[in-house]
Amino acid sequence: MDRYTDYSKRLDELRALLEKKDGTNLSKLLRRTNPVDIEEFISTLSAEDALLVFRLLKKDDAIEVFAELEQEDKEKIKTGLNDVEYSHLLDELDFDDMIDTLEEMPASVVQKILRNTDPEKRKKVNQYLKFPEDSAASLMTPEFVELKIGMTVKEALDTIKRIGHDKVTVYTCYVTDETKKLLGYVSLRNIVTNDMDTKISTLLYEDVITVNTSDDQEEVAHTFQKYGFTALPVIDKEKRLVGIITVDDIMWIIEQEATEDFQIMAATTPEEEEYSKMSAWDLAKNRIPWLMFLMISSAFTSTILRSYEAVIQSIIALNMFIPMLTDSGGNAGSQASTLVIRAMATKDVDLSDWAKVVWKECRVGLISGFFLALVGFLKCMFFDKVGLEISLIVAVTLLFVVVTAKIVGALLPMGAMKLGLDPAIMASPLITTIVDSLGLIVYFNIAQMFIAAAPL
Amino acid sequence: MDRYTDYSKRLDELRALLEKKDGTNLSKLLRRTNPVDIEEFISTLSAEDALLVFRLLKKDDAIEVFAELEQEDKEKIKTGLNDVEYSHLLDELDFDDMIDTLEEMPASVVQKILRNTDPEKRKKVNQYLKFPEDSAASLMTPEFVELKIGMTVKEALDTIKRIGHDKVTVYTCYVTDETKKLLGYVSLRNIVTNDMDTKISTLLYEDVITVNTSDDQEEVAHTFQKYGFTALPVIDKEKRLVGIITVDDIMWIIEQEATEDFQIMAATTPEEEEYSKMSAWDLAKNRIPWLMFLMISSAFTSTILRSYEAVIQSIIALNMFIPMLTDSGGNAGSQASTLVIRAMATKDVDLSDWAKVVWKECRVGLISGFFLALVGFLKCMFFDKVGLEISLIVAVTLLFVVVTAKIVGALLPMGAMKLGLDPAIMASPLITTIVDSLGLIVYFNIAQMFIAAAPL
Predict the structure, then answer these.
(1) Check: complex ipTM more than 0.85
(2) Would you tell me which CATH number, out of the four given (3.10.580.10, 3.90.870.40, 3.40.140.80, 3.30.70.260), belongs to the domain B144-266?
């Protein structure tokens, strides 16, 4: 038995057999290895070895492995096959995997491959290739089981037995009318747990949850999560059933959407590729515009500091607490904004809750600001020994900065959403820049008030 | 047909019928509404109305709705039922839903309820209640279909028809030997697409991917994602099959693990509850220790600034660029650390890649640092008009700070992982604090060198 924790051992075994050129045992072990792990194995090989291993696979595995391969590894295999072999291979793939493969190829190559495909399929392929990238349509496949409303359980089982091999799932079967409008679905569980002469119409579940071809993939993922389905039907504007989406394609979307939010919140343009696949140059290109924008925004603090130069020069000790004050503001704001952004992304909170959220953050700010101010005051008094006045100035500023940061951190992401922007852009870097400026102005004004009241 | 985008309209319809006390139509409409949406509806109602709606549901829906309800809404229903009714309801739940419900109750209530349960089930419940919270075991259910190796397709279908109603899935059926050791699985797809007299043993898939009872739920989620399964068998130390985990419970884990990382990266103790359900006091309690720790760490900058007071006082213009420099360092470091933390969380990068990652970030730092230094220099020269020397000091420091921030931002999360800590703690707030101190030291040292070479 192959436990998942042992899969790196399995890869070592495969590698050893390949080095020994022991084709017989390699082929045997490949038959006992999950296609996903074979894909990982092939991706580490040279073009020559990759092709050798690929040729050893039994047909079903070869198709599954090919579907899993990265584009560059697919190329390795492709160069070893002639055009006819290659278009046969593509033909055998699940429809959605074929589309994914074709999408990454130059249009000229796609047309050449499609020449060997029958006209009806070619038409469908061309239609799929045109769907927008993040839409429900781009995730769907036309390979679902369609049943007729008049069938019995026996007839349905016969149909599934006949056509089920080519379908991505047989566990949810869809029933449509003559215009392809969706009437409902029947689960295979219901089919096999009922008698052979039961009418499918009596098992039909009519209130189907569906998604539209144009829906965003994030919405689709939320629908899957909310209802716990393993497949969802996709309908077009005329409410005709055009395809289905299965849950295995959705788990990646949930992760990918979180990754995108992490990237935006770290002030980077979201990346198409995985981190490990990107060059230093491409990474830099996604980061520089944001760094530049934030640097220029934070230059506003220079102007503020310059205008208070006189105060600083007269009480130079004020200066030493600036980074501590701005950092604390930034941290307090980033806690609030991150939690609010995430709560909106997971649909825990929506725009209508804005007043509740701001009021909650305001109270959180008062509580945490109070403790920070207290500790800050004690530190200034007894550790830095800067005297009562400066310690008080620092403590009052800390309280103010933390409360402001919490409110700004809660308001801005919700404001961004209100304006139709991605709330994730209102994450710590931008919040920090804004809170820094506010904090400095307050700090020096409080200082000036103290000085006016009782010159230090 | 009930499109998911219309679900809020459906809730309004239900509410209107409830207000009119139109039980007949309310009951009809409830039959056409997904249990998940009914759960949302009930959660907005008073205890009295909730019970009224719950009583209108047909039995299967009632069970599903109850499983979905939040603890406080379950309480609303519970108060309206007597002990026997309530333990019957619990009995009808899927095993994992029952465990989830019992887990949130006081032990005394659980024991009282279990008194009405048969001894064997009670033993199993008690065993499940003891599994650690984030383990594979806590996600599993014993309600899977078990087949015998000697069966034919017909016998398997008969078994599934007989026992399938009570199982969380019938789509993957598990075959064990007499000691309960897992021999392999058969998919229902393979069963229904083969002839009635085919032996199950010929359809058996032996190289099963399994998880262990003690595996962390995050590992389990990754196994689901990697292989695209809808169910995974769970085995104990003796390799006996003890339960299965289904994909619908996993989609939440993927989201929850990302949320936990967001919280840690924003310097908050991860929260058990959703944001909207937490009080200001609890939120503050999770944030204060981190804010305090970071404030005290950043106090190190005060010591640095104090020790360079003489330099600042002689060239007060240096002072105005401090926030811009520290902010840029913080931003550059947070880009690197967030991307590296996320790449590790999604298994794109692991510890063995550390040298590659650091070298990549070093190059990213040089490229982005160069452009930032250039723009920073021009801004100092022509906008702030602080003269060539200070402009040069700022530019050189910017380059240094960005490169250092990138390297520190890449190294620290990997270091944390090496030490067995959660890499997410090495996110922007801590990186900012460290880079701030380094940046200030470099800034003033470069300044001193310039002053020594050519007094301003």
Answers:
(1) no
(2) 3.10.580.10
